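User: hey, got a sec? need Response regulator transcription factor folded
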Amino acid sequence: MTTSRTFLIEPNRLFRQGLRHLLSGTRFEAGAEFDTVKLALEAGDAGFTPDLIISGQPVGDEADLRTLREVFPATRILVLADDMSVDVLRTAMGAGADGFLSKNVSPEALIQSLQLIMLGEKVFPTNLAAMLLDISAPSPQNSIRGLSPREQEILQLLVTGASNKMIAIRLGITEATVKVHLKTLLRKIDVNNRTQAAIWAMNNGFSAEGAGTPTRGFQAASA
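Assistant: Yep! Here you go:
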């Protein structure tokens, strides 16, 4: 079984211990646990780099999450939240989280979501995604920012959470070409990463339905 070095960040000791017990014996068994983001960052400074971070720290101010992303750029980050509002989702995903789930998620759904995240998918509840789409205002035509048709196709696929490999297969191009388009795309819409680009797209009228058959990205997790 392939293992993933996992950090747990959770201020509630009882919940943290319960989560550790739940993950014990799985590929996501916790290698270290912390009650604050600051302590996890200190572990990073000491040279410890996890494959996965599961954080139950309240998102609130996104600075902590952004710092986690900066210190651990290649690490997958899942936020487990008490507050499942669309604003908190927007903050978490915009700050670089790869997943956003309720702390009430079922153990089975949590493990499945972690597996998807480690495959490069983005995972969050589809009801919140629908709320993001409901409040989106301008259409892509009015907010195109000079995007080429190919860049628009890639942007639409980002909404589904598609990885570079999936986008390449879908569009019949190489992953290297996808990366080139993505770099230009991020610059044009003035965002820092693919998650922010997906949120920008949803806020500007792009939808998963417009991309055809949805991929596994941005999955809902059943409670």
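Quick note: The domain at 136-211 is CATH 1.10.10.10 (Arc Repressor Mutant, subunit A). Let me know if you need anything else on Response regulator transcription factor.
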